[in-house]
Design brief:
7-stranded mixed β-sheet; alpha/beta; 5-stranded mixed β-sheet; 3 helices; single chain; about 180 residues; Purple Acid Phosphatase, chain A, domain 2
Length: about 180
């Protein structure tokens, strides 16, 4: 199963249009969105390409294959625009792994029950990260809309036993982790 993992789109139309090109190119079986779909947040200002309604239209094209969690900028009204369910956290089973999904602002919450052998997917920081520590695989796909720390806009792909952080601009792998067999 091929998963495309994204977080923190924040209503940025030009970024989500690029993401849609990656979705069409990657042809994932599932899209895992880790929250902060439409609202840009008070610290980001209002970018020129901010268009939450148009972004919701694009995201809804993939609603049947999208699994999402709620971010700290997501509200109940966002759920009325998006045609896929959002929860605070979620567990899926993919490619032989238990995959824990959370936005990231709740990482210290009791909501989380990560165990050795799990994959923890989270966003929120807008900084991509991919590492294995104490038997847990940590994946933050970064952000296609407001990347931080000088990083480019990114997303992640999990296919078979390999996870990659990829550039939104060209789909090139920036960081990869082979999970072995």
């Amino acid at each position: 199963m091929k998963l495309l993992i994204v977080s923190d789109t924040h209503g940025r139309l030009s970024c989500v249009q690029k993401l849609e090109r990656r979705i069409q190119e990657e042809r994932p079986d599932r899209i895992l969105h880790l929250g902060d779909y439409l609202y840009n947040g008070p610290r980001n200002g209002v970018p020129e390409d901010y268009d939450p309604l148009a972004v919701s239209d694009i995201l809804n094209r993939y609603a049947r294959i999208t699994i999402g969690v709620r971010g700290n900028c997501d509200s109940r009204i966002d759920q009325t625009l998006l045609h896929f369910k959002m929860e605070d956290s979620r567990v899926e089973y993919c490619n032989g792994y238990r995959v824990d999904m959370i936005h990231g602002d709740l990482l210290t919450s009791e909501v989380l029950n990560v165990q050795r052998g799990d994959i923890l997917l989270y966003g929120h920081t807008h900084v991509f990260m991919l590492k294995k520590e104490d038997g847990v695989i940590y994946v933050n796909p970064g952000s296609p809309s407001f990347p931080k720390n000088g990083n480019p806009p990114t997303y992640a792909v999990f296919e078979d036993r390999r996870i990659e952080i990829r550039s939104l601009e060209n789909g090139e792998a920036l960081l990869s982790l082979d999970l072995g067999y």
